[in-house]
Amino acid sequence: MKITFVIPNADLSGGIRVIAIYAERLKKRGHDVLVVSAPKPRPTPKEQAKSVLKGKGWIPYKDDEPSHFENSVVPLKVIEHYRPIIDADVPDADVVIATWWETAEWVAKLSPAKGAKAYFIQHHEVFDYLPVERVKATWQLPLHKIVISKWLVDLSKNEYGDTSVTHIPNSVDTDLFYAPQRSKNSIPTVGMLYSTPHWKGCAVSLKAFDLAAKHIPNLSMIAFGVYPLSSEMPLPANSEYTLKPQQQAIRDIYAHCDVWLCGSWSEGFHLPVLEAMACRCPVVSTEVGGAIDVIEAGVNGYLAPCGDSAALAEKLVQVLSLSDSEWNELSNRAYGTAVGYTWEDATDRFEAGLHTAIERSQRGDFSRLKSDNSKVA
Question: Phi-psi bin for 15: left (phi > 0), alpha (psi -120 to 50), beta?
Fold first, then answer.
């Protein structure tokens, strides 16, 4: 197949990492794969002024930000400035894949010659900083949906009336994320992803850590993220933080933790949960996408209601209070979960999903979805 991925911009986010994995694996299977991207949008004068007035200073901008497509076998075409991708930007192909609500608007308007249209959905992006009605409207476009979590399958069916959805859970790269069998640390250590957007639940996680620290002496934290530390959301005093670490360094972070903590309010899948498990780290997480698909309470980790820092803290204490042998059992089962389903398995399903998109396009099988693009920009 000739396959085009359309992405909003290339960066180091988890969603772009997943796209890069599929693009590379499809390329290595002999498909002709191209990724087309807009560059990162420049901050507007209004955004710059707002940042300065809030005391956060000038928003930096770089044209050459690192991304998961560096050193990739898949060619990346970046257009001249941030704008909608149009016919002239993409080659004729068998299938063209939108990867974000805004790219779904762009892909829906491409000519049929650019390929059957698919929509790779990694979250329900109804956030207050986005145009929510436009986001929702993209779920009604005549694009075959490929989703990564069971809750997105249910959402497509129950809220948008589309049951013809391909479900492909994420896997984890076990050549990159792995760790030998190990024991608990002499100093109990919690790991977490540091992220400033509210829905990532970092404040929830930090409160859970503080509550757990009242019961676990010398509790320490290791964290990483793509955001600089904020004075409004500082880490505990006994913490280590790595900004934008290399992938190998992320593996070492997971492998040095006794438990991985996720306090998110909402996630499409949240790959760090599975990556931590691949590094033999049990996980305590809120009941969000991905986590609810892979965590079995008491078997490989624990779940808690979203926003419930006290419940998260209780589960942290429970894991950290296990004997070495009990912790090892939990650790090994977490590892077994992560390695039981590979990216090759996922790519098989993704390939099949693209064939389904082509077949549905040939049949004209989108009559139940709104094909009127007037509701999207």
Answer: alpha
DSSP string, 159-211: HH-----EE------TTTS--------SS-EEEEE---SGGG-HHHHHHHHHH
Distance CA 7, CA 38 (A): 7
Tell me the C-alpha distance between 178 and 248, whole Å: 10
Helix or strand holding residue 262 (H, E): strand 259-262
Residue 174 burial class via C-beta count within 10 angstroms: exposed 0-12, middle 13-18, buried 19 and up: middle
Kindly state the DSSP code that residue 229 receives in the 8-state scheme: P
**91-112: b (≥16 Cβ within 10 Å) or e:** eebbbbbbbbbbbbbbbbbbee
Q: Indicate the burial class of 281 (C-beta count within 10 angstroms; 0-12, 13-18, 19 or more).
A: buried
How many C-beta atoms lie closer than 10 Å to residue 163's C-beta?
10
Is residue 20 a contact partner of residue 72, using CB atoms and an 8 Å limit? yes
Query: Each residue of 67-101: pLDDT tens digit?
Result: 999 989 999 999 999 999 999 999 999 999 999 99
Distance in angstroms (rounded) separating the CA atoms of residues 231 and 185: 29
Closest CA to 262 of 251, 271, 253: 271
The rounded percent of the chain whose pLDDT value lies above 70 is 96
pLDDT digits (tens, 9 = 90+) for 201-235: 999 999 999 999 999 989 999 999 989 999 999 99
